[in-house]
Amino acid sequence: MACVLLLAATVVPVDGHAASYRLTDEEGVTHFTNAPTDPRYRSMAGMSGTGAGWLRLPPSVQARFTEEIKAVAARHGVSASLVESVIRVESAFNPSAISPKGAQGLMQLMPQTASSLGVRNAFDPKQNIEGGVRHLRYLIDRYPGNLSLAIAAYNAGEGAVDRHRGIPPYAETQEYVRRVLQLSGGGGGQVIYRLEDAASGTVTYTNVPPARTFRVR
User: Fold this and answer.
1) Phi/psi zone of residue 22: left (φ > 0), alpha (ψ -120 to 50 degrees), beta?
2) Number of helical H runs and strand E runs in the chain
3) Does any domain span residue 107?
4) Which residues lie below 8 Å from residue 84, measured CB to CB, with a gap of 6+?
5) How many domains does the chain have?
6) What is the C-alpha to C-alpha distance for residues 192 and 187, in angstroms, rounded to an integer?
7) Among 63, 205, 79, CA closest to 133
8) Which CATH number covers residue 81?
9) Residue 44 lies in a domain
10) What are the CA-CA distances from residue 186 to residues 51, 63, 67, 179 (Å)?
11) Strand-by-strand arrangement of the 30-33 sheet
12) Helix%, strand%, coil% for the chain, nearest 5
């Protein structure tokens, strides 16, 4: 029987990896979540959804939204590959996903952010993608030349990025940035570099080799 991934969750900025849980129901369908509501869920300790490999999705799941993503990304001058990577890590292409913090839909828009972007129904894939890409475009412009900061801000918020003068020291956010860059760069063969400024404590992830680097993958 086919395995269906039902994600109630996505990434939130916390100091450590969020717990992950798994349940196989009576019909053989496997469910994953980080917010279990059924006592039958069993903990997958120490693993995030990304780390556990849930996000290695069948191509058919992603393909449902491919054309919409391409159209919206082109309209706003954002890489379609980057948008797909954000959606993959945020919601695993589940348009009904809701995070514990209340983020909604494919690109996990918080209600206040969605409202400011003119998104009336965050669970409508077209509206969600439009709003999410517009927000991503804004962040890319806000941190010119540093895509890793734009991605970190999408996850943890601009305030956290500005406060820490770089990618915040949240394990989940750092993994989020690494994973999005890796996926948008073409999958497992992409090398991601981690550069840390000892003086300021600023951490940068990039797929462009700086002068002095530490490989993440």
Assistant:
1) beta
2) 9, 6
3) yes
4) 62, 66, 69, 183, 184
5) 1
6) 11
7) 79
8) 1.10.530.10
9) no
10) 18, 16, 19, 11
11) 30-33, 21-24, 42-43
12) 40, 10, 50
- Structure tokens of 113? 């952010």
The pLDDT tens digits of the residues spanning 166-179 come to 999 999 999 999 99
Please report where in the chains the tokens 């003068």 appear, as a residue: 165
- Residue 200 in any domain: the answer is no
20 touches 49 (CB < 8 A):
yes
pLDDT score recorded for residue 75: 96
The burial of 131, by beta-carbon neighbours within 10 Å (0-12 exposed, 13-18 middle, 19 or more buried), is given as buried
Residues involved in catalysis? 90
Residue 211 sits at the vertex; the CA angle it makes with 209 and 212, to the nearest 5 degrees, is 95
Structural domain harbouring 82:
59-179
Find how far residue 53's CA is from the centre of its chain: 14
Indicate the DSSP class of residue 200: T
Q: What is the pLDDT of residue 18?
A: 43
For residue 149, being part of any structural domain is answered with yes
Question: Which range has the worst mean pLDDT, 56-60, 98-102, 161-165?
Answer: 56-60
Angstrom distance (rounded) from CA 79 to CA 77: 7
Question: What are 174's two structure tokens?
Answer: 């750092």
Cα first-last separation, the chain: 34
